[in-house]
Automatic annotation (TrEMBL):
Residue ranges of every copy of the tRNA ligase kinase domain listed in the record: 405-568
Catalyzed reactions: ATP + (ribonucleotide)n-3'-hydroxyl + 5'-phospho-(ribonucleotide)m = (ribonucleotide)n+m + AMP + diphosphate
Top-level taxon: Eukaryota
Residue span(s) of domain T4 RNA ligase 1-like N-terminal: 78-302
A family per Pfam: RNA_lig_T4_1
Active-site residue numbers: 124
Domain tRNA ligase phosphodiesterase: 575-807
GO CC list: nucleus
Keyword annotations of the record: Ligase, tRNA processing
Species this protein is from: Brettanomyces naardenensis (Yeast)
The protein's name: tRNA ligase
C-alpha cells in the first residue's frame, strides 16, 4: 500500500520511464564491462551481496575515488552509491560533488557562472550516508555507501546498524517497513539519509540522545541521470516516516548564498547549532539539471581533528609521542586539562582509542573554558606562554636543532673524559649518556636514553666505542626507529673521531691508552685493570683495536654524519686539546645555539673535574638475563622490484604522490610489513600479552639463537633462524599528499615445516609503507592515513585503489625477521 503523502509526487511519464529503463540497461552493461578490467584506471569495482532477510543478490558499483574528478576520463555514471538488481537501479546516490574551491571547476568564480539558482543550502549532517529503497515485492533495501545486508568481512556494518535504527523509527510513527518500501518503489525513489549516532560511531559533531537518528536529506529518482526532489518535499516525506529534518535556507543568487555561507563559517553554526558546513543544491546553467556542491567549514573541525589525534598519540606513547599541528597551543592547553582524566582511567583511554568518548572529552574542556571552539581559536595567539610550560612537561619540540654527538674510538682514548668536560662546561646544553652505564641487554637503550636527554637539552653525547660500521649504523637506525619528536631535518649527527688513523699496530697509541687504563685501575664500570690484573683488560683493549673500522666520511653509515670532528688520542694530555677542538667546532657548526666560548680557566677546571670522575656503577659483563629483545618483528617483501610493478599496474600514473616519490627517489629501498612493534605494548593489555608471546614463546628460541650467533651484531634485521614465514595479500593502495602505503592482510604465519603459528598482529592496519614525501614525514604516518580511511571513512585528498584479489597480489612465503 502506498502511503498518502502530504505533497503531490512528481509524475513520471511512461515515455520517461521507458527511457530510464533503456538507459539503465545500457549503463549496467557498461559497468559490467568496466568491472572486468578492474583495478585499472577508470574501472569499476563490483560487489555483490544479498539484501537482508532475502537471497536476492544486489550489485554495488564503486569507482576509484580519484577517477570521479579526472579530466581524462568520462565515467558512465557519477553516482556515488549505485545499487542494481539485474537491469534495474534499486538505489541511486547523488552525483559526486565537491567542496567549493577544491579545484578550478568548483572555484567560486567558475560556479558563479556555471550554476543558476535558486540555491538551496542544506545543513550538512555528519555521519554515514544511507540509501533506502523498496522492491516490487515490498522488500525494504537499506544500503550504506557501498554495501547492504549481512557481511562477515567487516567489523562494523553501517547498513545493518542504520536498518535497525530505521525499524525503530518506523515503529515510533506507526509505519511499517512495507509501507516505506512500497511507497519508495511506487515512486521510483531512493531516500538518502545520514545516520548519525555516537553510540554507533562518533564523527566530528555530537549526536546523542534526541539528536541521534536518521536525517533524511534527499529523494533521488532511480534513474541513470541524476534527478532529485526539492527540500520541502524531502522534509515532508521524512516527517511521514519519522526521519529527522534537514534544515535549509534558500537564496536566489549565487552572491547571496556565498555571503550567507561566509557569515555562517565565522560562527561555525546555524540556528544556534554547530554544523560542519552546507550542501548547496542548484542547477547547471541553461538546464534543469540538478547540481550540487558543498561548503565545508574549516574551523573548528580542523581543531577538533587535531584534538582527537593528539589525545590518541598521548594515550599511546605519552607526552613525547605527541606531534602538534596547526593548533599547537590549544592542543597543549587541552592536553594539560585532560591529562588528569586520562591518567588513572584505563577504560577511558581504551575506549578513546576505540573512537568512543572523543566528543565528550573535548566538550569537557570547552565547557571548562566557557568558550566554543571558534572562540578559543581566536584566542590562540595569546596562549604563547603555555609553550614553555609544556616544554617543561616534555611536550613537543623546540625550534632549534638537536645534536647527537657520537664518539668513535677504542678503550682509553678519553671519550668519557671529553664528554664529562663538555657536560661540565655546558650543563644546560650538553647531556651525556655512557654505554658503560647501561644495563644489559643494551638493545636500543643508548639511543632511547639519548632521545630522552634531547627533550630537555639540545645536545647529547653517545659515549661508546662505536668502533665498527654496524655499531654506527645501529645508532642511525635506532634514531630513525625511535625518534618521534624531532623532525629529521632538525636532528644533526656529529662524529667525534678519536682515531682518524687506524689504531692497529700504532705503538704510540697503544702505550698512551694502556698506561691510562692501568692508571685508571678499577675505576671503570666493567674493565678492571686493578684487582684482576692488566692481562684481561689488555685482551679486551686489543680486541677493540683489531676490530676497529675507521671512519669513512664518504661511505655509509659514516656519510650520514653531518659533521666529523677529527681528534687526537695519542699524547699524554691529548684530551685537554680535544675538548677545545670539539668546542670550537660546535660553536661554529651549531650556530643556532649561540654556544659561548669558555675561558682558559673554565677549560682547565672542566678538564680537571673530568679526570677526577669515578663511575658509581659496577657492571659485570656477559651476564645476560635472556636474549635481547628486538624493536619489532616484520616480514620482508623479498622482491621490491616486483612490488613496484604491482603498484604501477594498479596506479598507472593516476597518483600524483606516487609519481613524485618516484621522481625524487623517495620510494623505500626495501619493503616490509611490521607485525608487532615493542612500542605497541602500550596500546593495550592484549597487545602486551601478544608481544610476550612473540618474544617469550613463539620466537623465543630464535631470539636465543640470534643472540648466541651474533650477539655482537647490533644492526638491523635478522631473519629468524627457524625460517618462519608469512603469507600476505595486497589489499588497497592508499595515499594522501604525504605518504603512500599499501594496506595488506597477513593471512597466515607458519613454521618452516608448514605448521601454523597462531599469532595475531600488533598493528590494526597492517601495511607496507611505500614512501613519504619528505624526511619530515615519518613512515609511521601510514598508520594515521589508514586510521583516517578505515575508522573515519575519510576521502578528502585521499586516493584509494583496490588491488584485485588475485594470485599475483598474494605474496607467499615471506621470511619473518626481528629488527634490533
Ligand atoms: P674512554 O675509555 O675512552 O672513555 O677513556 P676515559 O675518558 O675513561 O679515559 C681513560 C683514563 O684516562 C681515565 O682514567 C681518564 O681520567 C684518563 N685520561 C683521559 N684523558 C686524559 C688526558 O688527556 N690526560 C691524562 N693524564 N689522563 C687522561
Ligand atoms: Mg669511557
Amino acid at each position: 500500500m502506498v502511503v498518502n503523502l502530504p505533497f503531490e509526487p512528481v509524475v513520471v511519464s511512461n515515455e520517461e520511464r521507458e527511457k530510464d529503463i533503456d538507459e539503465s540497461i545500457k549503463l549496467i552493461s557498461e559497468l559490467e564491462e568496466l568491472a572486468k578490467v578492474h583495478p585499472k584506471k577508470g574501472a569499476v569495482r563490483k560487489f555483490t551481496n544479498s539484501i537482508d532477510g532475502t537471497s536476492i543478490p544486489v550489485n554495488s558499483w564503486k569507482f576509484n575515488e580519484w577517477d570521479y574528478s579526472s579530466k581524462k576520463l568520462t565515467l558512465p555514471t557519477y553516482a556515488r552509491g549505485l545499487f542494481t538488481i539485474d537491469n534495474r537501479i534499486v538505489c541511486r546516490g547523488y552525483d559526486k560533488f565537491y567542496n567549493v574551491n577544491e579545484f578550478n571547476e568548483v572555484s567560486e568564480e567558475v560556479l558563479s557562472k556555471s550554476t543558476t539558482g535558486p540555491y538551496t543550502l542544506t545543513v550538512k549532517s555528519n555521519g554515514c550516508i544511507v540509501f533506502i529503497s523498496g522492491l516490487k515485492d515490498g522488500t525494504l533495501v537499506v544500503c550504506s555507501k557501498h554495501s547492504t545486508g549481512v557481511r562477515d568481512d567487516v567489523q562494523k556494518n553501517h547498513a545493518m546498524a542504520a536498518q535497525q535504527a530505521l525499524e525503530l523509527q518506523l515503529d515510533r510513527c506507526h509505519m511499517t517497513k512495507l509501507d516505506l518500501a512500497e511507497t519508495l518503489y511506487k515512486l521510483g525513489l531512493t531516500a538518502v539519509a545520514e545516520y548519525c549516532d555516537d553510540n554507533f560511531e562518533e564523527h566530528v559533531l555530537e549526536y546523542k540522545d534526541d539528536r541521534a537518528g536518521l536525517y533524511l536529506h534527499g529523494l533521488n529518482f532511480n534513474s541513470p541521470k541524476f534527478r532529485t526532489y526539492p527540500m520541502e518535499e524531502v522534509n515532508s516525506f521524512g516527517s511521514v516516516f519519522g526521519f529527522k529534518r534537514t534544515k535549509f535556507r534558500r537564496f536566489d543568487t549565487f552572491r547571496e548564498a556565498m555571503i550567507f555561507l561566509s557569515k555562517a563559517a565565522a560562527t561555525g553554526s546555524f540556528e544556534g547549532e554547530e554544523v560542519e558546513g552546507f550542501v548547496v543544491r542548484c542547477y547547471k546553467t541553461g538546464t534543469h539539471n540538478d547540481f550540487f556542491f558543498k561548503f565545508k567549514f574549516e574551523e573548528p573541525y580542523l581543531l577538533y581533528r587535531e584534538l582527537r589525534e593528539v589525545t590518541k598519540q598521548f594515550i599511546q606513547g605519552g607526552p613525547q609521542n605527541v606531534h602538534f599541528g596547526k593548533h599547537k597551543l590549544i592542543c597543549m592547553d587541552y592536553l594539560k586539562y585532560i591529562m588528569p582524566f586520562l591518567h588513572d582511567n584505563e577504560k577511558l583511554r581504551q575506549s578513546y582509542l576505540d573512537n568512543k568518548g572523543i566528543v565528550e572529552l573535548r566538550k569537557k574542556y570547552f565547557d571548562a573554558r566557557g568558550q566554543t571552539g571558534l572562540e578559543v581559536i581566536d584566542e590562540e595567539v595569546s596562549m604563547a606562554k603555555l609553550e614553555d610550560e609544556m616544554r617543561l612537561l616534555k611536550f613537543g619540540s623546540s625550534q632549534t636543532c638537536k645534536y647527537a654527538i657520537v664518539t668513535v674510538a677504542t678503550i682509553g682514548c678519553g671519550k668519557t673524559t671529553t664528554s664529562l668536560a663538555l657536560a661540565n662546561l655546558y650543563p644546560d646544553l650538553v647531556g651525556h649518556i655512557q654505554n658503560d652505564n647501561i644495563s644489559r641487554p643494551v638493545g636500543s637503550k643508548l639511543v632511547s636514553g639519548a632521545l630522552e636527554i634531547l627533550v630537555n637539552k639540545p645536545m647529547v653525547i653517545l659515549d661508546k666505542n662505536n668502533h665498527k660500521y654496524v655499531e654506527r649504523q645501529k645508532i642511525f637506525d635506532d634514531f630513525a626507529q625511535l625518534n618521534e619528536i624531532i623532525p629529521s631535518s632538525k636532528l644533526k649527527f656529529i662524529c667525534l673521531n678519536f682515531l682518524p688513523m687506524p689504531p692497529k699496530g700504532d705503538t704510540e697509541l697503544w702505550k698512551v691508552t694502556r698506561d691510562r687504563i692501568i692508571e685508571r685501575g678499577d675505576n671503570h664500570q666493567s674493565i678492571k685493570a686493578g684487582g684482576s690484573g692488566i692481562g684481561k683488560a689488555e685482551k679486551i683493549m686489543q680486541g677493540f683495536i683489531n676490530r676497529f673500522q675507521p671512519v669513512k666520511p664518504r661511505k655509509e653509515p659514516d656519510s650520514k654524519f653531518d659533521l666529523i670532528i677529527n681528534l687526537n688520542a695519542k699524547s699524554d694530555n691529548s684530551t685537554f686539546e680535544n675538548i677545545k677542538t670539539v668546542v670550537e667546532s660546535l660553536v661554529s657548526f651549531a650556530s643556532d645555539l649561540d654556544i659561548p666560548r669558555p675561558t682558559e680557566e673554565q677549560y682547565q677546571e672542566a678538564f680537571r673535574k673530568a679526570l677526577d670522575y669515578k663511575p658509581s656503577i659496577n657492571k659485570i659483563v656477559h651476564s645476560r638475563v635472556g636474549p635481547r629483545t628486538p624493536v619489532y618483528f616484520g616480514t620482508s617483501i623479498l622482491d621490491p622490484q616486483s612490488l613496484q610493478e604491482r603498484i604501477e599496474d594498479l596506479v598507472g600514473g593516476s597518483s600524483e604522490l606516487y609519481e613524485k616519490l618516484k621522481a625524487t627517489g623517495r620510494i623505500m629501498s626495501e619493503f616490509h610489513v611490521t607485525m608487532i612493534h615493542y612500542k605497541s605494548k602500550k596500546k593495550s593489555q592484549e597487545i602486551k600479552a601478544l608481544w610476550n608471546r612473540y618474544v617469550k614463546s613463539e620466537f623465543a628460541e630464535d631470539l636465543l639463537k640470534i643472540d648466541e650467533q651474533s650477539s655482537k651484531i647490533t644492526g638491523q634485521r635478522i631473519l629468524l633462524p627457524s625460517k618462519s614465514k608469512a603469507d600476505i595479500k595486497l589489499e588497497k593502495f592508499c595515499c594522501n599528499s604525504k605518504v603512500a602505503c599499501i594496506k595488506v592482510s597477513v593471512d597466515r604465519i607458519y613454521r618452516a615445516d608448514g605448521t601454523d603459528i597462531s599469532l595475531g598482529l600488533g598493528n590494526k592496519f597492517p601495511h607496507i609503507t611505500i614512501g613519504t614525501i619528505n624526511e619530515e614525514i615519518r613512515p609511521a604516518e601510514s598508520n594515521n592515513l589508514l586510521n583516517e580511511i578505515y575508522e573515519f571513512n575519510a576521502t578528502d585528498g585521499i586516493q584509494c585503489l583496490d588491488f584485485k584479489d588475485s594470485e599475483e597480489n598474494s605474496l607467499k612465503g615471506l621470511p619473518i625477521f626481528a629488527h634490533y
